[in-house]
Write a structure and sequence with these properties.
This protein is of the alpha/beta class. The protein has helices spanning 9-12, 41-45, 63-76, 89-101, 116-124, 136-149, 160-166, 168-177, 192-206, 226-229, 251-261, 270-284, 290-304, 326-331, 343-349, and strands at residues 35-37, 48-53, 81-85, 104-110, 128-132, 153-154, 183-187, 215-221, 264-268, 313-318. The longest helix is centred in the middle third of the chain and has 15 residues, at 192-206.
């Protein structure tokens, strides 16, 4: 059996990454995620719309792209343990890759602010999870302090290797389309992803693998929108737990990506996120977590405002799978009452 075609992002894009022959590659064959053409929303909005569905990465989110590199470099540096603060996806990814590398994974989570689907992943991968009385920003400062005092590798997006790994999604989009999109829409939480995509697009452009750069369009939840407000949010709140962050670690880099690309960073409400999530699942057949739906909510908002030209090429980033936060989907669904098990009653209930 020839398995050479099955490569993770480090092997696929080695020439663009800070690795050498001495770097042990810790991989779960992440990346190579589908760029799904829209069959409904794109037509209704008059756009050539695609969804980059990062929810099919090994642990169900885009975090795996950066984590394969961060964990590989942690092993290369001789670390025996890694640590992160997380609202969910980072903890799941760090725990899985640390497990594969034989490292100890330490995870700090904000009290009551993590989706159970994500927490379950971290626990099943045998991470040591510590829940603190405070939000994500407090947790992140604590893990930074710990790394200054103890021999533990920090694998949050402040780790530059995370950004390096995540930029490969921009390479994949360009390689798949054969061109760079005119616009890219994505959710913004800790802001590492918008930073990474912009870095990737610029690198491909410098290598003459694309003839233009996209406008980066990022969206924060209204209750957790520090970049839009221009100041940290002490108690961020939104149903989209993955972007419930009040003081993004990559704040300045995200602003630079916005300004250099001629794009924007705006806000969407929880109700807009919920509606976008339902439309994405109900019209496109793609089940993404609430934070992912922030990009679709932003896309719909801009489209209603006449922001795009007809037939603009747009890629929306869906950062995580809907099963990451099953309680959100369950809360939006109603289980029907049981009926008599007869042909007529079932046919009637089915609307036949």
């Amino acid at each position: 059996m020839d398995i050479s075609q099955y490569r993770g992002i480090i092997e696929r894009y080695r020439d663009y990454l800070p690795v050498s022959s001495r770097t042990p590659v810790i991989s779960l064959l992440e990346g190579n995620t589908p760029l799904i053409p829209s069959v409904s929303l794109g037509k209704k909005l008059g756009l050539r719309l695609y969804f980059k569905f990062e929810g099919v990465n090994p642990t169900g989110s885009f975090k795996d792209r950066g984590m394969t590199l961060a964990i590989s470099k942690a092993v290369e540096a001789g670390n025996s343990a890694v640590i992160c603060a997380s609202t969910g996806n980072t903890s799941a990814s760090a725990a899985a890759y640390a497990s594969r590398a034989g490292l100890k994974a330490l995870v700090l989570i904000p009290e009551g602010k993590i989706a159970m689907g994500k927490l379950a992943q971290a626990l099943i991968h045998k991470a040591r999870v510590v829940q603190i009385k405070g939000n994500f920003d407090i947790a992140l400062q604590l893990v930074r302090d710990i790394c200054e005092k103890y021999q533990v590798a920090l694998v949050n997006s402040v780790n530059p290797y995370r950004i390096e790994g995540q930029k490969t999604a921009a390479f994949e989009i360009t390689d798949t389309l054969g061109e760079t999109p005119e616009y890219q829409v994505l959710p913004v939480g800790n802001a590492g992803n918008i930073t990474a995509y912009w870095k990737g697009y610029k690198e491909y452009h410098r290598q003459k693998k694309s003839d233009r750069l996209p406008r980066m369009l990022g969206f924060q939840a209204e209750g957790a929108a520090p970049i839009v407000l221009g100041h940290p949010v002490t108690d961020p709140e939104t149903i989209a737990t993955a972007i419930r962050i009040g003081n993004p670690a990559s704040w300045q880099a995200a602003v630079a990506a916005r300004d250099e690309s001629g794009g924007l960073i705006g806000t969407v409400s929880d109700s807009e996120i919920t509606e976008a999530s339902k439309r994405l699942a109900g019209e496109e057949g793609v089940f993404a977590e609430p934070a992912s739906a922030a990009s679709i909510a932003g896309l719909l908002k801009l489209s209603r405002a006449g922001y795009f030209s007809q037939e603009s090429l747009v890629v929306a980033i869906l950062t995580g799978h809907g099963l990451k936060d099953p309680q959100f989907a369950i809360s939006e669904c109603c289980l029907p009452e049981p009926i008599a098990p007869t042909l007529n009653t079932v046919a009637e209930a089915c609307g036949l």
